[in-house]
Amino acid sequence: MSGPAEPREDRGEPLVPVTRWAGGGPDPADGAAPSVASAGASPDDAPGAGPARAAGRLGDDHGAGSTSGAEPDPEGPPAFYFDFRDPESYLAAERVIRTLPVATPWVPVDASRLPGPHAWEGFRCAADASAARERIARTAAERGLQPVHWPAEVPFDSTRALRAAWYAKGLGRVVSFSLPAFRQAYAGGHDLSSEAFVLIAASASEMHPRAILQALERAPIAAALEAATDRAIERGVRTTPAVWTGDRVFHGDDGVDEAAAHLAAR
Fold first, then answer.
1. Which of 12, 57, 73, 206 is the most exposed place for a label (fewest CB within 10 A)?
2. Would you say the C-alpha torsion 27, 29, 30, 34 has a positive or negative sign?
3. CA angle 31, 37, 39 (to 5 degrees)
4. What pTM value is reported for the model?
């Protein structure tokens, strides 16, 4: 497969193939906040599925709340909240699309700002930390995921990866960026505070490295992440991962199953 085309910034065109752009409004590469109102997709448009079947619903960010042809809501309900710094978010991300019964957008948030409790920062002793890591590794193995290799530091500073995810969300590629990023962290053992590993994950979703490097420094991208985190707090999200259904919040990897049952019962 050939690499992504060189960007044509002088013409104001997106830094991704034009046929994949679905954000609507200003191109995030032009410095504006990403427009994600039209970046939803049907459940059939998960990574590896065929192309979207309706114009304006391209991409892998599953918009919610659109049952009458209106534009999908990029933050639900429902919504899947995650942060790369949290290993349980990795476990949840690997199965949330196939587990939840309705299309659910992915919303990156800064978990360090959430009320908590923050399990991966509050271990009483090394034995507790070791037990938590063993539980994650055992669950990953039971689900047929790649063997877990831990970054040097957990939790790590996920700011760069979160900003890159918000840029990807504006392009309808938040899932196709975020899953490789999670795997870089917890299957590859790479700290996503490193710019290099964020760029490797971005390459898997065919985003140009120059666009990512620019996005990491842009105030509107940082502001979008901050505002989404504020909204998550208002909705009752305490930790990641979490699924917000509009009336309840389900926390943790187990919360994915609980949210699925709750949504299916409606």
1. 12
2. positive
3. 90
4. 0.76
Cα 91 to Cα 87: distance, rounded to the nearest angstrom = 7
Give the model's confidence band at 60: pLDDT under 50 very low, under 70 low, under 90 confident, else very high.
low
Q: Is residue 94 within 8 Å of 145, Cβ to Cβ?
A: yes
CATH of domain 45-264: 3.40.30.10
Q: Please say if the pLDDT value at position 116 is more than 50.
A: yes
pLDDT in tens, 224-254: 999 999 999 999 999 999 999 999 999 999 9
Burial 64-74 (b: 16+ CB within 10 A, else e): bbeeeeebbbb
Q: Which candidate, 157, 166, 161, 163, places its Cα nearest to that of 217?
A: 163
Q: Which residues contact 144 (CB under 8 A, 6 or more apart)?
A: none
Structure tokens at 94: 């690997």
Confidence of residue 61 (pLDDT cuts 50, 70, 90): low
For residue 177, which of 226, 211, 152 has the smallest C-alpha distance? 211
Q: Two tokens at 50?
A: 């065929």
The full set of domain ranges for the chain reads 45-264
